[in-house]
Design brief:
The chain has 311 residues and is of the alpha+beta class. Helix content is 39%, strand content 18%. Strands 1-2-3-5-4 form a five-stranded mixed barrel. Strands 6-7 form a two-stranded antiparallel ribbon. Helix 4 crosses helix 7, helix 4 packs across helix 8 and helix 7 packs parallel to helix 8. It starts with 14 loop residues before the first strand and ends in a 21-residue tail after the last helix. The mean pLDDT is 93.
Length: 311
């Protein structure tokens, strides 16, 4: 089986391989001709695909298909024009090839780091974190942090949360006022805790759960923190509890970015900055890693809304 990696294929000629169907629907051109529009994934990246003059059966999301076609550029992004395709036979592919994941060793390293970071906390804060994690059946250590944009793989939530924590602590060292570092660590490690229920990832593709679509991760996270607070009273005083809730509620930074409130404490500001920077840094790093020889500018990066210089 060959998973199609369109970036490694020549710009001219036919490309062949297997891809995962993330989205599929019939559309109509300006000339009222039907076409099949799909979002296809190789387990790492997603590409827009079109099959012109098509009004047959629509592939099911989650199907693995074999395609032959051509890659071209459309609106500064690669687009796959499909000449023909068929549903793949089970013996032709491995499901794990389409569900990106950190290695077991890497997840264990991150888990050890997660446990080590907690040793600097007061006992009441350590117990509180452990209560939140235990209530989630330890899904925290395997959940992805996103479907596509950043850390979109098994173990991604853990990796992202630890990176945000380290960035937050580095920023705290530069602050002109006293920072509650224990609360900053807890807020950083748990800011995206709701993502353990926002996504389903038992099989490819990583997808939003019904709970994720109806509530999204901030609301789910606030509920998880509330449950842990009730179960561990009086470990955290009410002020710490409200502050932690505020940090999670405001970590997107702006109402238009999905937060119900903007940051109103220095700890919340630091968390938002560290979270945003880690996501941006991830996208820049990916652009650099994906660049071809002699490439000066990246492809259009949807999450950043621009190309970036990768020379």
């Amino acid at each position: 089986m060959t998973v199609l990696n369109w970036k490694n294929e020549p710009s001219e000629g036919i490309v062949k391989g297997f891809l995962l169907v993330n989205e599929a629907k019939i559309g109509t051109t300006k000339n009222d001709k039907p076409f099949l529009g799909m979002k296809l994934s190789n387990g790492i990246e997603e590409i827009d695909a079109k099959k012109w003059d098509y009004d047959d059966q629509v592939p099911v999301v989650g199907d693995i298909i074999y395609i032959e076609g051509k890659v071209q550029e459309y609106l500064n992004c690669p687009q796959l024009i499909i000449y023909k395709f068929r549903r793949a036979l089970e013996k032709e592919y491995n499901v794990s090839d389409f569900l990106p994941s950190l290695s077991c060793n890497r997840i264990q390293e991150l888990t050890d780091e997660f446990n080590e970071i907690q040793t600097c906390l007061q006992e009441r804060y350590r117990v509180f974190i452990q209560e939140v994690i235990a209530n989630s059946s330890n899904k925290y250590f395997t959940a992805p942090a996103a479907k596509i944009h950043h850390h979109a793989y098994i173990g991604g939530l853990l990796e992202h949360s630890l990176a945000v924590c380290k960035r937050s602590l580095a920023l705290a060292e530069l602050s002109m006022i006293t920072i509650n570092k224990d609360l900053l660590v807890i807020g950083s490690l748990l800011h995206d805790i709701g993502k353990i229920y926002s996504y389903e990832y038992d099989k490819p593709p990583i997808r939003m759960s019904s709970e994720g679509k109806l509530l999204d991760h901030i609301v789910i996270g606030l509920n998880l923190i509330s449950d842990a607070y009730k179960n561990t009273m009086p470990l955290l005083d009410k002020e710490d509890y409200l502050h932690l809730q505020h940090m999670i509620a405001s970590h997107h930074g702006k109402l238009e970015w999905g937060s119900p409130i903007v940051p109103k404490t220095i700890e919340a500001e630091i968390l938002h900055t560290a979270d945003n920077l880690d996501a941006i840094d991830f996208k820049y790093n990916k652009a650099v890693q994906d660049k071809s020889d002699n490439q000066e500018w990246s492809d259009w990066i949807k999450g950043l809304g621009k190309e970036v210089w990768v020379k």
